[in-house]
Amino acid sequence: MANRLTERWHDEPWARNEEFWYSGKTTRRRFIGLTAAAAGALGATTFVPAPWREAFGQAKPFKIGVLQPLTGAAAAGGKTALVGTQLAANRINKSGGINGRPVELVIADYESKPDVGRRKAEKLVVEDKVDVGEGGYLSNVCLACMPVFEEHRTVYMIGVCLDTTITTSKCSRYIFRPFDYAPSQAVAFAPHMVNKIGKKWHIVFLDYAWGQTTRDAFVEQIKKNGGEIAGTTGIPLGTADMTAFISKITGTFDALYAIMFGANAVTFTNQAYDLGLLRKVKYAGDGAVAESTHLTALGQKVEGFTGVNRYIPVMTKPLDTPHHRKFFEEAKVLLKQMDPTGPDPDRYVQSNFEAMNFLKLGIQKSGFKGREDSMKLIQALEGMEVKEGDDFPQGDKLLRKEDHQAFLRQFIFDIHNGKHRLLDVVPREKTVVPPACTFPKA
Amino acid sequence: MLPFDQLVVQIVNGLVNGMILALVASGLTLIFGIMDIVNFAHGDLFMLGAYIGTTVFFTTGNFWAALVGSVLAMALLGAVLQTTALRPLIGRDPLTTILATFGISLILQNYALWQYGPVPRRIVEPVSGHFQLFYVDYPWYRILVAVLSAAIIGGLYLFMKFGKHGIWIRATTQDRVMAAAMGIPVPWVHTVVFAIGASMAAASGVLFGPTVGVNHAMGFDFTLKAFVVVVVGGMGNLGGSILASIFISLLESLATIWVSPAQAIIVSFVALIVTLLVRPTGLFVPTPK
Lengths: 442, 289
Description:
The complex is a heterodimer. By secondary structure, chain A is of the alpha/beta class. Chain A has two domains: about 50-180 and about 320-410, 3-Layer(aba) Sandwich (Rossmann fold); about 185-310, Rossmann fold, CATH 3.40.50. Helix content of chain A is about 45%, strand content about 15%. Chain A is built from 17 helices and 15 strands. Chain A has helices at about 1-10, 15, 20, 30-45, 50-55, 75-95, 115-125, 140-150, 180-195, 210-225, 245, 260-275, 275-280, 295-300, 320-340, 345-365, 375-380, and strands spanning about 60-70, 105-110, 130-135, 155-160, 175, 200-205, 230-235, 255-260, 280-285, 305-310, 385, 395-400, 405-410, 410-415, 420-425. A seven-stranded mixed beta sheet of chain A has the order 7-6-8-9-10-14-15. In chain A, strands 2-1-3-4-5 form a five-stranded parallel beta sheet, with helices on both faces. A three-stranded antiparallel beta sheet of chain A has the order 11-12-13, with no helix packed on it. Chain A is globular, with a radius of gyration of 23 Å. In chain B, strand 1 (about 130-135) and strand 2 form a beta hairpin.
């Protein structure tokens, strides 16, 4: 980027002016003028890449405020999630933008902290004046930022956060979740868990918003399907050594269900294996435990793990489609730029990619021009049904009108020879749970 | 009635965790004791040491080469950091060194993310067996880590007690001005001490790496605990920090018999507050006569 900037600013009209180079006197007016021009050039180059500026001429870009944790404890996931957003933005701009206007990403790093997230969300809507918001990763940060978007009547298309309450008790007309949530996952996976893995379960969860609501959903569905819960163990987010928690998991049960993600999942699986727990009982859990980005770090220790996920990087039926292959290969190129090991895309890449495409369709359908048209965009998105294709390689989806929650097919998989192996596909219709949202009155 | 099996498991856990923590904390306390620097980058040196260990491990396939390679590389990096970023701040307000180490911490974290990417890395442990400890299959590797930590700390103790340069370091701790007057190259001692502290952090990172997976955030939790230990043990007191590590870890482990491990962490902070109120110089520092 730095090189590109250095090369380009020489070509700007203000820089060709000989007065600029040879005048020995810098007046205050000239200094301010040049500073403003330089800032403008820098800003434009930073947010809208040069090729798109040339392609779109004077068209005003849609400003999309992207919130991700790019530093701090959740940085690994945030950086992966951002790849999905960037991939979609690149494709949108390459294919002529949305209604002839390019997409400009205004990326904000919330440092994995809810208070910073809220502040950055405010900056995006107040100072950067973004048209819509996208992203999120940690559920507690999404929950902290939602009131900001609601207050400023700005649509926020969540890219990752899975906390159930986002589309139930804390739902908002301005907030959309274009991917699954725990009640759907539990409905999809619990029959397989109880009938094919074990009757008696111990649940280990990350002790914060997402982990707690996911635990509740699975406890309910395991019991509904005739299973039993032997116990639950909450582990605080970011615990470096989990042996104290794992060595307290005692009693008889058939299988362990882990609700973990990122480095926490890697630590838990490593240590639960080392302490013999995973050799005594069957191991299952949220798909985030065994994302493609974790498999190298877990090695043999995650072998045999069974999970449920909205996305797995396999090319077997029904995922052996040209749309999925295209998404997979393009995402892999971007991921390789971010991580030298070149990991396969995971669900964070997929859901952010598709979240951006939902926004694209919504803007196209509603004729949305800016934040003043937020209600039109909301109405266009409500009840939107999309088909599997280049924009939605994961499969068909319905963005339910009543709670802005999407329903999509789920993949049940295991880890076999260090790779994902698809065991079963639960169709979208079998993941539907009744809405539990009453939108606050505007 | 106290369950005997849980008691034994938690005592073993407490001792093992205490030794790992002692290795992290001893580097931190050494740097503070000699240089009066509260090193906020210690957890990041721990993390970067583990990452360098993964690079050497990936190249050689040998855990011990990874350990030695990482220790040497981080000693060099520690020396460079001290010379370039911290030495110019000697004699200034302590707040400036705190800010400097905080800045180094941010740089190292983001460097690790940029260089190694967000995907967690793996170092395979050299010993993979386990033994039955009541209801837990306890891994031999954790015992090995505790023994190696004790050996490294023991080696440091012998070096400080009997080595010529160790004596220089102790003299600098006692009286910097007098040490300089006696011909001890104090700035060089500072550099060496920071290098030793960094290499100990690296050793802990590589030793701990196989049990957690190496990621850019692995140092956060340990740094916080190490700071508690350093205060409870007596700022700059090496022996005190080691005893405090074992004391705090045992307290936490035993508390988990009755409460959730998440609540047991409170015990460390209670110990910290009590220490600051009752004996601010540290629980394991001899009372001045």
